[in-house]
Structures are given as C-alpha cells and as structure tokens.
Amino acid sequence: MKEKLALMIPGPTPVPERVLQALGQHPIGHRTPEFQDIVNKTTELLKWLHQTKQDVLTITGSGTAAMEAGIINTLSKGDKVICGENGKFGERWVKVAKAYGLNVQVVKADWGQPLNPEEFKVLLDQDEDIRAVILTHSETSTGVINDLKEISKHVSQHKNAITIADCVTSLGATNVPMDEWHLDVVASGSQKGYMIPPGLSFVALSKKAWKANERSDLPKFYLDLRSYKKSGDKNSNPFTPSVNIYFALQEALEMMKEEGLENIFRRHNKHKEATQAAMEAIGLKLFAAKGFGSPSVTAIEPKGIDADVIRNYIKENFDILLAGGQDHLKGKVFRIGHLGFVNDRDILTVISSIEVTLIQLNILEKPIGSGVAAAAAILTD
Ligand SMILES: *Cc1c(COP(=O)(O)O)cnc(C)c1O
User: What is the residue extent of each domain of the chain?
Assistant: First the structure.
C-alpha cells in the first residue's frame, strides 16, 4: 500500500490534512492586498516561533538557501570564520564558506559526538578578527544536538563575531530562543518542523547581523537579504514567492500556535526519549553520544547487519520510510525521524515494526514487546 507510506525521515516530514487543503487552493497574485495579509500574518507567527523581536525573512528555496544567505549577507571576502563540523551538515557549511573565499578554521568532533563549546571559546579568545561562528544545532546526519546556547554565549562576548546557526531540525522541535541566546542568524526550512512541503526557507537576523551586513562584500543577488528586508517591511517579497507554500505556512503556523511552544517541545522530547528507550530495550545501539540525542531524529547503529536491510524490510512490509546513513555511515546506521506532525501512535508503530522486522531477520535478542513496553512507559507517563 504505497499510498499509506508513512514518512519517518527528518524531512520532508508528514503534512497535516489542514495544511494539505490550504496548499490545494488556486494561487493568488503575490502583489495583492490578500497576499500581503498572508505575509504580514506569517511574519508575526515566525517571530513568535523564533522567540524574537528581530527580522525573520522568507526565501523561496530550501534550507541551504537560508544558510547560504545568512553567510553571504554578513561576511566579506577573506573573513576569518570558525565552522563547527560533526556531521554532514557541518561539512556543508564549511564548503559554502570556502566557496565564497572565507578563511575557514574548523572545530571538529567525531560523527556521533557533540561539538565542544570550550574549543570555540579558546579560538575566540585568541583572535579578535574572527567574524563568525557557523554551526549546526541539530546535526541531522548523526542525530546529535550541539550545545548552541553555550557556544553562542562565547560568541556574544566576542567583539566582532556573530553566530550563524543552522536550526533546520531544531526550530519547532526544541527551545531555540533567538533573542535570549543572542543568536545572530537562524536558518530553517519548511519541510522540517514546520510540517509543510519543501519550498520555503527562513532566515532571522539580529541587529548585530545587520550591522555586519553593512560591511559585507560577498557577491549576492537572489539571496541579497536587504531586498527581502525592504520588501518585507511592506509585507511583500522581492521575487515571486512560492505562493501555495505560503498558504500552507500560514495554516501550519496557526496549528503550532494552537498547540503552544511548550507543548510542541514537550511532545518532541517525549518522542525522542521513547524512541531512545525502546531501541536500547530492543538491544540496538544509539549512535549519538548519551545526553546529546537530537529532539527530531534518532540514529541507530545495529550490530552485525547492514542497517539498510532493516530499513528496506520496514519500507517493503510496513510502509514506513526511515532514513539511511550518509557517507561513511551508509549501511551502518538507520535514522528515525520524529519531527513535526508526529504523534504517540507513530512512535509505537515504528517501534513495533522494528521489533517484528528483527524477528523476521532472526536478530531480535530481547523478548518481543520490550521496545514497545519501554516506549509506552514514557509515552503514558
Ligand atoms: C534538511 C537540513 C538542511 C537543509 O537542507 P535542504 O535540503 O537545503 O533543505 C540543513 N541543515 C540540516 C541540519 C538539515 O537537516
């Protein structure tokens, strides 16, 4: 039953009925008062979601566009930057920074381990010329959450540096209070915690980021955020935006507002904990270091079997799509997305499907139901 395929990957994530219906309307003119009203409302709700009074701009493009925009609008050729790298997305920001001729210093951690905030502090203390720290909050490729709050604290004490954070799988899943944490650039994308299809991305900028923008000389046109700011102040867009995804955005943000930030964070945390507890009870190893599991994705490292065999069995037999490992983790891990429009039933379903799969593959080491029982204890708490 391919029509019933459940997405349990860390993006694109499942889309609620209400949002699908919003999406299925006729497009309207993007220079009309009706559309301006949508831009106005979504901008206010985006500020609420980012817990900020600063600007949140909407770009038609994927999450990478928002990150690239953040980088090229605040930095200049040859600027010294520190990139945190402990997974695939961390690697991507190093590549973008290098592509624009930035002078990149990399702070690394092994895949599965979190970045060490102290290493950023040491480098920042030594050099007043550093202009940015670029990092990923929730490293989707490994299921690790980095200590963005602590790293950003060190950056905020530095004279020149700003924090540019990829919050693509943390925003809308866990607390990312932009103003309270002194984050300068926060990037996210529609197909993740927002519960809408791919197509829009969001970049929020602090006053310090706009200050940095004044001296930024990197080339830009489509992603020149000054033009987004200028149009945004008139509830408009510099180019034709993805109008229908905007309809969906408004609906999804209203759903999020109805649920409330605290409830959204609590739900994601509970699903993370239930998934982790279940995998351990089944006898499967968690890939992320203890205490650093991402709220939106759990990576699992099964022993003695290709992880893709488990993943493919689940897709073929239970119509649940899980994510595989990337690069050197291919076949070594599979990843369960629990981001966005996910409820307790989804979690119980995926756990029981994994248990049955392991039985069928003859590798279940624990009594059947161990995972479900461990998850249920947390979900019903
Ligand atoms: C999905 C994702 C992105 C954005 O990727 P796009 O394919 O450009 O939308 C960026 N960072 C992280 C951590 C992600 O999970």
Answer: 6-12+260-379, 17-258
Which tens digit of pLDDT belongs to each residue from 62-121?
Answer: 999 999 999 999 999 999 999 999 999 999 999 999 999 999 999 999 999 999 999 999
CA 63 – ligand 1 centroid, Å: 5
CB under 8 Å to 215, separation ≥6 — which residues?
76
Specify the pLDDT at position 2. 77
Closest CA to 165 of 198, 120, 135, 210: 135
CB atoms within 10 A of CB 320: 21
Give, for ligand 1, the residue of 142, 169, 188, 196 to mutate: max count of ligand atoms closer than 8 Å to Cβ: 169
CATH number of 17-258: 3.40.640.10
Q: In angstroms, rounded to a whole number, what is the distance separating the alpha carbons of residues 11 and 233?
A: 30
pTM above 0.85, yes or no: yes
At residue 35's C-alpha, the angle toward residues 15 and 40, to 5°, is: 85
**Number of other CB atoms surrounding residue 364 within 10 Å:** 19
Superfamily of domain 6-12+260-379: Aspartate Aminotransferase, domain 1 (3.90.1150.10)
Instruction: Among 62, 134, 138, name the best residue to mutate to test ligand 1's pocket (greatest count of ligand atoms within 8 A of Cβ).
Output: 62
Per-residue pLDDT tens over the stretch 298-319: 999 999 999 999 999 999 999 9
pLDDT at 327: 96
pLDDT at 381: 87
DSSP run (H or E) holding 85: strand 80-85
Residues 6 or more apart whose Cβ sits within 8 Å of residue 332: 301, 307, 325
Residues 300 and 307: beta-carbon distance below 8 Å: yes
Which residues have a Cβ under 8 Å from the Cβ of 264 and sit 6 or more positions away?
A: 172, 173, 256
Asked if the domains 6-12+260-379 and 17-258 are classified in one and the same CATH topology, the answer is: no
Nearest Cα residue to 288 out of 266, 167, 279: 279
What separation in angstroms does the CA of 308 have from each of 1, 301, 327?
A: 20, 11, 13
